[in-house]
Each structure stands twice: as structure tokens, then as C-alpha cells.
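Supplementary Data S3. Sequence and C-alpha cells for construct A.
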Amino acid sequence: MIVCRRHFRIGKKLLPLLFACAALLAFAAPQAHAGTPDVVITSAGPVRGVVYDGVREFKGIPYAAPPVGALRWAMPQPVKPWTEIRDASKYGNACPQVSRYGLTAASDTEDCLTVNVTTPWNGVAPQKQLPVLVWIHGGAFVGGSSALYPLAHLARAGNIVVVSLNYRLGVFGFMANPAFGKAHDGGYGLEDQRFALRWVQKNIAAFGGNPNNVTIAGESAGASSVCMHVISPQETKGLFEKAIIQSGGCAAPLHSLAQGNAFGQKVAALAGCTDEKTELACLRAKPVETLLQAGVKASGGDLMSFAPLVGAQTVPLQWNAAFAAGRYVNVPVMNGGTRDELRLYVAYDIQAGEKIDDATYPAALKTVYGNNAETVLKEYPRAAYSSAPAALGSVMSDFNPEVGLNNSLYLDAAKLMTRHEPVYELEFADPNAPAVTADPGFEMGAVHSSELPYLFPHFDNTTSLAGPELSPDSQKLSDQLVAYWTSFVKTGHPLAPESPVWPRYTADDDVMLFYPGKTGLYDATVQHKCIFWKALYPRILTE
């Protein structure tokens, strides 16, 4: 035990001793700094956040060493400790990425592995450790940042500790290559997340959180990351007790490690690294921007180019195979997505100049569904929708064989999981959700990521947080959603005052529909024509 004696005389000689004690304690055990709620001593050193409006916020805390030089495409390593109190009032750098859709910010900074912690604060420390929510941001595994998601509302409303994190993206976090280490080839972004979860286990008690009551949650790529953690128990068991998967197609087939390595070699060639003997050294010497542009060119806009790979230690088995083999973390799960998921990507295509109208609708279906296109057209006639873009977006939101963002896959995953662990299934369907992109000229509805402003006020995919206020009806829906979410974080059971009882998912009509004034259970299988889709794609929709 390290003892810092308290009987020294006050004077100039005392200060160095106090700093020495603080440094020793930093290595001994993370702890709150008595009497100063804005200072916490983590396992690496003390940090000072800010206290305001009922919360304490600590931002940009390094949880791993910068992944530069020899640590580029290597497992995350411990951060170098510090002794001086470190400023934790600003978010850390976003990990390297290009700007996408004329909306998101670019970054070329590899020193980006940081966490943020927000806790409720009413002037006194909580009497007991609070439940913890760890948020993993989305961005198609190539973009995004924890700085886009303000955590204060969830912390205050739910009386929970909320953590968010950055992780390596794209070519740096999810690209495989034969020159990389075989055990975690293509999985360094997921391994960053797991390293951050171990940081939470070691440090969160100092912030007032309970390391034995941690829920991991994410949307889009963040949700798919949660899926990967659920089916990798050899690496993640004991790091979380519950999981929230929002718009992540867990049941979507993953590319193999061999496919990933072939893609990684294509990126390397585009970056000018073609000699197998020197390939890794060559790639590590390349500027960030060179590698980012090589990744963009190699992917050709394919959303799945940097999705997680199966076959290495990071993700050993496909989703269905993992459950069949009993290789999963058995925890309660909240799972689901938005009704009109892929209308967002139709909007992006239109903004990029693609023409989608009545004349091109059948050809667009042919591009997605191949030989099944005529059958799909009969089931989804253009006349059933307000416009051709809305029709195409709705079809793909029900099922898309190439992209995991669709409701049939969400329900397929839920049906598999519910045989092994408690599942609470949801669908967000507010037709008047705030726009998350410029007006594309057709009805958007509840598109991909449209639920995020209901959890993170004013979310708009930028750090400006300039999203509009929710309408009164949508705000009520937000209050319900937050209440259910934070209840699940606390107990594993989603409950909300004066709201419908949300049962475990055991039948088709056990899905909680979030719709203004109509929140309640409904049959999502019928809504999204899952029986029709399963008949066409039995190898993908297996449940």
C-alpha cells in the first residue's frame, strides 16, 4: 500500500511532496480528487474537466498511446503516464478520415485514441456507483467522431455515467493486409474499442461509475461493432453486462479475411507499396492523406469495404456460426433500427447527381437485386409510394442483400438471439424526424441516424450541433426513448413512465414502435415483408 503522510508543515516544501503523492496515487488506483469535482486521478494521471448545468464532463482523455510509427497497424498500447493535471475540457482529435457527403469533417491526425466521460452532478458525490453507458460512434467504419454526440442529456435524464470514445477508422483501423499481424489482421479499430472498455473497467469507479454495470451501445458502424463484441467472448467477456444495437445488421454476412487481405493489397498498391518484403515499412512511412485517398479509390464507394472481417482472433466466426457454437457473450440486448433506413443513401445518391425517377426505378432494383428484380418490382410497385426515390429507399430499408442496414436483417438477428438471451426489439418511425442531410426533394421519413437527435440533442453530424429543436410531439417521443434506454442501462429491462410495457421479443408483434402519439407494440415482420424476403434470400435470412 502507498501511504502519503498528512503531518507535513504547510509551506513551500510541502507542494513537491503533495505532487509526488498524487503521482504515486495515479499509478496505484484511479480515484476522485477529494473536494474538487472537476479533477479525477486516472490510472495514467490526473485530469481536470468542467462542471456545469448538473453534469461533470471530462473530454479527450488518452486511453492508449498514439498509434503512429511502429504502432500503426499494431495492437493498442498503454498511454505514457503523466503527473501534472491534464486539461480535459475539450474533445480529442477525430481519427483520420476524409470528408463525406459534403457534410462531415476531415482529419489527418493519428493521435486520436481518447475517451470522454460525463456524469450527473448535483453538488455531492453519488451515494453509490452509477450504471455506465459506453457509446460507440457510427460512420461506416471510415468516419465519425465521439465529438458529434453530446452526452450531458443522457447522463442527467437517466442519472447514469456516459462514456464515448474514438477508434481507428478505414485503412488504419479496418483494413487487412498479409503484412499485418495475423491474430488481429483487419481488426485494429475493434481492438481499440476493447482497449477503451478495459480502460473503463480500470477507471470508471473514480468518476462515480460502476464497472460491474456497463452497457455498450452504438449506432450504424458503432452498432455493428457492438455485434462483433457480442460474438467475441474470448476477448470481451466481462467488459459489459448489456448491449444496445441501433441500426446494425448483426446477421449480415461478413467478408472473409482472405477477401480483406486482397483489398488491403489493392490499397497498398495504390499507395505505392508493392514489394511484399518491405510492404509494412512502406505503408507505415506513407503520409496519412496518401493512405486515405488510396482507401477511397480502392473502395469505389462500397459501404462494406471497411466492414469488420471474419476469420482472425478479433472476430473468429460469422454471427450465426458463433451462436450455433455457443461463442457469444450472454447479455440482455436492445436491438433495432429505423423504418426508412436507406432512404438516406438514396438522398446521397441524388445529391451526387444520380437520376432516380419512374423510368429508372426498375433498373435501380436490378442493380440491387439482380435476377430477383422483377419479383421485387411486383411486390413493391412504384405506385405504392409518393415518389421513385421513396420507393427505392423503402424497398432497400426492408431488405438489401449487400448492406446490413435493413429491417429484415435486424429481425433475423433478434430471432436468433432471443433463443439464447433476452432481446428487446424496437423500430424508430417518426415520419417528421429532423433532416440529417440537405433536402433531396422527396419524403425522407425516419431515415438512417434520424433517431440520434432524440438521444443526443441537436445532433447534426457535425461538431457545431446545429440541429433544430424537436417538435412537441417528437420531443415526447424523445423523452420516451431516453427513459426506456436509460432504464435498460440500469436494470436490463426497458421501462418508461406512463408508457407501454415493453416485453421480451418472443413473437413477431413484440416489437416496440416509436411513433409520435402511437408508441406501442406492432408486427414489424409484416410491415417489412420479411417472409417475402426470406423466400428470396434464404442463405442470408436464416431465422
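Construct B, processed identically:
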Amino acid sequence: MNRELIRNFCIIAHIDHGKSTLADRLLEITKTVEKRGFHDQMLDSMELERERGITIKASAVRILYTAKNGSTYQLNLIDTPGHVDFTYEVAKSLSACEGALLLVDAAQGIEAQTVANYYLACNQNLKIIPVINKIDLPHAQPEVVRHQIHDVLLLEEAPLLASAKQGIGAVEILEAVVREIPPPKGDEHNALAALVFDSMFDTYKGVVVYVRIMNGRITPKMNITLMATGKRYEVLETGIFTPEPKSVASLSCGEVGYMCCNIKDPAEVLIGDTVTDFKNPAAAPLPGFKKAHPLVFCGLYPVNSVDFDRLRDALQKLKLTDFGFVFEQESSPSLGFGFRCGFLGLLHMDIVHERLEREFDLNLIATTPSVVYRVKKTNGDMIDVDNPSKFPEPQQIEHIEEPYIKSFMIIPHDCLGTVMTLAQSKRGIHINKEFLDEQRMMITYEFPLGEVIVDFYDKLKSLTRGYGSLDYEFIGYRVTNLVKLDILINGDLCDALSFLVHKDNSQYKGRQVVTKLREAIPRQLYEVAIQAAIGSRVIARETVKPMGKNVLAKCYGGDISRKRKLLEKQKMGRKRMKQFGKIQIPQEAFMAVLKIE
């Protein structure tokens, strides 16, 4: 197709502002999907996405639209997630586009992730088309939101009004895309240069590589090379998304699609890599995009040790579709062989855990999440500690640094006091507050990442009656005073439950953890002692009482010495069981550690 008739754009917004619903309406209006095959959240292919009502993976689709000027345009649409944990999916999508629809809820207004995604798009120099969605709601305030877009985002352009659910304004949005978003640059006759912006694994085709052609053309039987690895492949198939994969004769400059080269090893494909012609390579690789760095780490272990190889294969395939996920093998005395996995946030960790169990039929235990600390040792070495088991002895430590984030919270005015109290309890440093309108304001704090990864977002939502929103960015490391809190079960160290905590909070956290574990660990036939310790000093203890068995029930009388003999025998039996017995720690016990206040 003529490059002047191609438009590449994506939809960006805060979570639950109607991105997937708008994508559904655009597919419906342009008859891209037949009516009998249509369903809600058409581009959300995962069952988990439909269940939770959130977009996890960015999805591409090609739309053919005949505009009012009579020309038929090829629109390549990419629907993106809205949650802060999946910002890397947005960044990938933006790199393959020339424009973006910025959706804002007419009832909720501008939220934290709206601002974050807007600046991501601005950094890519994309054309932004603002759209106020959900104008059909009874409590919609489109005029208030219009002023917010002008005052907060400094966008002079008048936003379009739409209701994705009712289909209102969808045609006007398509016309604006055709009119406002520029056609792709590049030349079909130049050397091939295509950006790899995503990939997936197919059992029969191997790795399916998603590409945006910047220059040149890709055709089947063509020899190509991936510039990061230098490996050569033969293209077996090229195709587009409608949204189902559909084979085509070629992909030319400006188009978005996929290619299959029978690549069997997922590690050979790197997101952000450049595809070029083996015989006539491009002069330099494309800029790609900034790599996402994991902020939260936890261990994933199979409940049954024979599933270890299956877990490794599953992680390799999952990494193909998840740019921000990393893993490496590790072992634990308590849980055996497993993997240390890195995630971009707690929701990201939860989604990966659930996908592994559902899609690959695995039964897993996830350890307590932690962040990466930097420890400078007395010999001058600087080491990264993402697992409490790697924490050096106190006498070897010169100082410890922990990661800090800058958070932007948009909250109602009347919740300011409670939110600031919450922020101070998490060692937050107040930076700024700014009034957005008569009802809402944005406050800026700096936090230690380890304090907010677990339950901060949930508490913020609770305190603001669901109206609060949060976005954050990593700002670096700062010196802090941390200690390693060990959990002992009957005197044996349970390394999977150990975690790092600020020294001022260690006594309080220790008491809370052992209290929670006492409720989570099931009773045994013998007494179970749960202790929290820093080094050799025990700071808290709780006891799980043994299950009672009345050994005197059959004694209806007789000499007291017979009863004493039975009680002594029971006492010796319990002592022997305590010495040799193994306690199965349920997953609920690991989750209990997360729920400490």
C-alpha cells in the first residue's frame, strides 16, 4: 500500500478509562471482525485479562478504513495497558507508532498514569490526539476534564468527545487519526531495517517476531539477520493481525506485522533489536527503546521438585512475551531448586505467577518479594543483594543503599491528611503538592521502594474511597540502615521467609510476622516455636500449641503411677517427633508475611 495512506497509532490512558472498549468500537465500525466472531475486549486475548478487566499485553491489529475524503487507509492500531506495572508495554508500542490517542475518563478526569503515559508519548515526539471518553455517564464532567487537559498537560488542541460503550464519537476519532497523525517515514527502496517490538512462542512455528518496518521490505524466502546477535535466518512466513494472524505476501515500509523464521531458542530474539537484510544490511541498528529494569524480586519454586525442568521451559517462553521479566536459577535449603525472578511491580508479579500456574499447569510457591539493595563491603566491593540469603555478615558491611522512587499521587482534597499520615508511616519525604481543580490535588513524595511495593497502593485506594491514583519513577539509591530479619521454625532457619527491614522498624515487624505465622502454620502433634531473630538475637517469639490427645481417656481409675507412665511416654514421643518431624509450610504462611501492617 502507498505509504501516504498508512497510519500507525496506539491508545494510551490510565487503567479502566476505556481503551479496550474503544478498540472494540473501532473494529466494529470498520467491520474488521465479523459480527458472529465478535466479543467484548476483542484485543485482550488472555483469559486473565478478561477476568480482571485489565489489559496486560499490548495487542496489534490492522484496520482498513474508508475516510470521508474517499481514500482507504491502513490503520495499524496497538491497544496498551494502563497500570503502572506495565508501562514497558506502552513504551514498546509507542516506538512502533507515529501518533497516540490519549483517553481521559469524563467522570474521573486526569489520573497519575494519564500524565505518565502522556510524557512517554511526548518523549517519542508522537502526535497526541486527546479524547474525553464516557461522556454518557450521569456524573460525567467533560468541561471540567477539558480544562484539566489544558491546564495540567498544556495541550492546546480541543479534545474529542466520545463514549466508547455507546459508539459515540468513534467515526470522528477515525477521521482525526487519518487527518492529524502523519504517515510513516522511510523508503521501501532503502536497506531493510525493522524494529522488533514484541514476540511470542508458537509450538509449530517457533518464535513469532512482531516487527514494524522502518525501511525496506520483508518477503518469505529472504535471508535476514538480527543485528544484536548477528545470526542469520530464512524468513518462512510474513503476516498481519486482523486481529487473528493472517499470512501476507510481504511487509513493506511503514507496516506492522509478524515474521516466522523457525527460531527454536527464545533467547535468540531480543526486544528492541533490528532486523535487516543479510546481503544488504542497514548501516546502523535502530535506536530501539530503553530497557525495563525489574524493581521487585521473589523466588518461584515448584511444589513438586520433578516440575523444575517444566518451570524453566515455561519461564523461557513467558519471557518472550514479557519485556520486563527476568529470572535466574537458585536453590534454597527449605524449598529446593527454583528461580529468582524479577518483576516491575507487585501486580506484575501476581500476573506472572498466575499465568505460570494456568497456562503451563504448574503448582508453585512464591517467596516474600524484595527489592535490590546495594551493599558496600569493608574490602571496597559493591554488591547487589536481591535475596536476603546473599546479605553479608554485619562485620563485613561498610554501608547499605536502598532504591528510592518519586511517586505522584492524585487524591481528593479531603483525603490529604490521611494520605500524608500513610506516607510518613512508609518513611516518605514530602516534595510538593499542587491543586488540579476544586476537588483534586497532586502530591509528590519520595519513598524507599521496599516500603511501598506490597500494600501501599491498596491502602491509598482504601483511604481515598477508590479515587486515588499512583504513578512512580525510579530515582536512584540512598544510604540507609537495614538489618536482616531471620525467621526460625523450631530452631531451623527458614530462608524463604527472611527479609530485610529498616532497623527502627525491626522489633515491630518481627512481632507482627511471628503472630501472622502462628495463625497460618497448621497445628502439629508437637509444639512449634516460631522466632524472629537479628543475627543471634531473638527479638520475638510465638508458639503453635500441639494438638491435644487424651492418653488418659482409657484410664478409669487405678494407681496414679500408671497415668504418669502414659504421660511420660507421650512426652518422650512428642520430643522425638519434634526432633525428626518436618513441618510443611503452606503458601498462606508466605503470603501472611506480606500482610503485616
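The radius of gyration is 28 Å. The mean pLDDT is 81.
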